[in-house]
Amino acid sequence: MKQYFKKCCLPTLTILLMFVLVACSSSEKGENDSSGQESEQDNKKSVQSQQLENLTIGLTNDVGPLNIYTGNLDWLTDLVYDKLFSPSPYVEKPTPWLAESATQIDDTTWDVVVRDGIKWHDGEDFTAEDVKFTYEYYRDGPANRHTHHVSEVPKIDTIEVQEDGKTVRFECGYPCPSLLTITFADLPILPEHIWSKVENPRKHTELAVGTGPFILTEYVTNQHYKLKANNDYFMGQPTVANLTLPIISDATAMFNSLKSGEVDVSSRPVPAELISTFINDNNFKLAEASALSIVQFNLNYGIEPYDNPEFREAMSLAIDRQAIVDTILLGQGQAGTKGYPHPASPWTNPDLSTPYDLKQAKEKFAALGYKDTNGDGLLETADGEVLTTTIKVSSGEPIFVRTAELMAEHFTTNVGIQMNVQALDATTFAAHSSEKNYQATISLIGPHGVADPDQFIMSHRSGYLWTKEVAYPEMDALISDWMAATDIESRKLISFDMQKQYNSQPTSIALYYPKEVYAYNAEVFDQYVESLGYGIINKYSFLSKDVQTAVSATEPVSIK
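The chain above was modelled as a monomer; its predicted structure follows.
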C-alpha cells in the first residue's frame, strides 16, 4: 500500500501551521476584552491593506461564464475552482490541495481523504460527496475535456464515499498508477448542490461557483470578467482584492492597452518583434516562462496521400524547423526537432529526434513514386498531376500565416511539392479544423495535449492524433502494454516507445516550441511566479510565498 502525502507534506505542513498560529492567536483573546477586539479589527484592516486593490489582466478571448462544458481556459478556470491535488498534471509530484492525502491500496484502488472546513463561494460546505458527484458527472454525463480522465484513460468504474464521510474510494477498470499525478491534479471539483440540478450542462449560463481563491462576480459577453478575492480561502487570503479582465482579442490592441496603462499585464505573450519596445520602456518588466505548447503542422491522415505513414515521415524530414525559428520568430522559440509531445514534460522521451534531412526526404518521395518528369521542378503523381498541398491557417494568427508562407516557399522551391496557403477567419478555420476539412493546417496545441501522458494515449483513440476506428497495430500493441502496466516507471518507458513510434510517422508535426515572454507593469504588481504549463498568470501568483513554495511555483526568468 502506497501513501502519497509524506513525500510532499513539508511545505503543506508549513501552510497548515501558519493557519493554526493565526487561529490560536485569535482564540487567546478574551471575549469581553474590548482592546483585544479593537486590536483584532486593526489587524484585519492591516491584512486588507496589504492586498493590491485591483489588477487588470488583458484577456485574449471569451470563454463564457467559466462553464467547463462550453469554454475553458485552464489558468482562468483555476482561479475559481480547485482540484484534489495541485498545481497540475504537468509535474511529477503534485501537492495535496482539496485532498489531505491519497493512498494507493492496490493496482486498481485509491483512497482520497478530503479536507474539512472548506466552503464553496456561496457558503455551502465542501464535502467528499462533491468529489464523488464530480467524478461521476464527468464520467457519465456529456463529454468535456476532462471526461477521458475518468471514463477511458484511466477508466474509473466505481467511486464511493466511505463510512468516515471524508474518504473517497476510487476503483479502476484496469491498473491506474497515475491517478494521483494526472487525474487528481487535473479535474476541477464541482459543487453537487448546484450541478446536480443542471439538466443540460452545455446550456448552463450561471456564473461559476467554486472553492478557489477568487469569486467570479461579473461576466459580460465579449467584454470582461470581474473577480473578487475569496478572503476566507483555505490556503490563505489572496494578495489581490479584485481582478478585472477585459477581453482584447486583437494583438495590436492588447499591447497598446498595456502601453497606455489600461491593463497591467497581458495574458498574450509578447511577439518577438515587440520585445525591444518593452525592453526600452522602464515602466515594464519582461519575464519568460515555459510554454509547454507546440505549434504544429497537422496532416489529414484520413485522406490520400497523408494516410500513408511513409509520406508523413517524408514530410517531417523535409521541414527546416530552425529556419522557421530564426526567420519568423527571430530566435524566440525552440525548433521542434524533438517532435511530439513537448520535451519539457517529465513524461517525454528525452531521446526523441525529428531531424531536417532534405536529401532523405527527397529519396522517400521518389520511392513513393513522386517524380519530376517534365523538369519544371515540381513532383508529379502517377497520374501526371502536380503534387499539391494547401495549408489552411487562421488569419487571426499572423505568425502562423507567415510560418505557412515560409513553408510553402520552401516546399515548392526545395522539395518540389506545390504548397499553397489559405488564410481563413478564425471562426471558419475552427469549423474546417473540427470537420477535418483540410489537407494541412498550422495551429497551436497547449499543455493538456502535449504534456499530459494520459492525453497522449487518448489522442490516439479520440480522432485527434489517430482514431481507434482505423487500424494501427504497432501503436495498439503498445497501448495494451501501457494499460497493463502497474507502476508509473513502467508506463513511462512504454510511453517513450509510443512517442518514438508516433514521431516516425507523425500526423501532427512539431514545428517549434514557443517561448512565452510576458510584459507587465511591475510598479502595479511584481509577485508573479511561474506554474509549469500556466505561464505567470495563475492562481499561485496571487497567493502567499509559503503557498507558492508548497506547489513548487518559481519566479519566471527575467529578461529585463
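Confidence is low (pLDDT under 50) at residues 1-48.
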